[in-house]
Amino acid sequence: MSTVQQQLKLEQTAQGWDRSAEGYLAFMEKTGFTRLYAQDILDETLPVSSQNNTPKDVKILDIAAGTGAMSIIAAQRVKALGVGGSVLATDFSPLMVECIEKEIKSHNLDNIKAQVMDGQNLTLADSSIDFAYIIFGIMFFPDQQRGLSELLRVLKPGGVTGIATWSPKNPMAEWVINTLKKLVPQPTTPTPATPTTPPTPTGITLSLSDPVSIETVLKSSGFVDIKVEGKEHCFESTVDMYVDCNLDNPVLVGIKNSLPQDKQPLFADTLRQVAKELHPNGIIKINSLAYLTTARKPQL
Ligand SMILES: C[S@@+](CC[C@H](N)C(=O)[O-])C[C@H]1O[C@@H](n2cnc3c(N)ncnc32)[C@H](O)[C@@H]1O
User: Fold this and answer.
1) Methyltransferase domain spans which residues (predicted)?
2) 59: closest CA among 89, 86, 91, 90?
């Protein structure tokens, strides 16, 4: 495994994500960000018109819920459907869970709870959930297979899942690659001690980033009726805000820590400089393509 992959794995801890909770919430509030994709998945799996098919007292689980992008909309949807039921928003980062609790209060919702929980070890009964979502979370699990087995275990037979993952088309990935090229210039004549290419942010960030691999993994985990759809949304942000809210993200921290020690303090400023060279007016329109997957646990 390359140094960058080792560092990325090392940073995938609750404390690592705790550090990014505040920035993540701020970006979410300014741009809507992942809420737009959560809305798409909810419209597909639990449309407003589904009163008659939705179980009474419906149980919804949001895994790796972050600051509650999916959970809040899902709780509002349950109210709109009038079927009764509740949402459990879970994340392994206590500070993300605190952000969700603030969101629950500010939206004045009484049908949702937030709980600290690792997606690879759900402390929930077998076959207890009607709808379970993992929006932009599964790619960070060190053991994705285990996460999917847990997801399948807690769903009721016939229960529905919705999963969102990013495609590789993402401006931050390009900025990071250019930053690494600046900080680790490549020798013209490579030697065994000096790699021919700088480290690139692959692996965790790009896992499950194409329809074939998503379908294959879900099928081998035991899901059926798998449907994968690409969906693009556009956000506008200042470059500074987009950089600031990503700097504490465990993915960028892992990439920074994979650099030689003397280069690590230069990472943030170089990233900002690279981004501003590409967007001199300081504004970025981010077109982000995601894959939205829906599937079912087989009926008994
Ligand atoms: C990019 S955020 C996405 C949050 C939210 N679902 C959204 O779409 O806005 C990834 C989230 O996954 C959570 N996470 C990562 N690994 C986890 C794990 N093993 N168990 C539970 N949550 C995890 C992080 O704490 C973080 O909140």
Assistant:
1) 60-159
2) 86
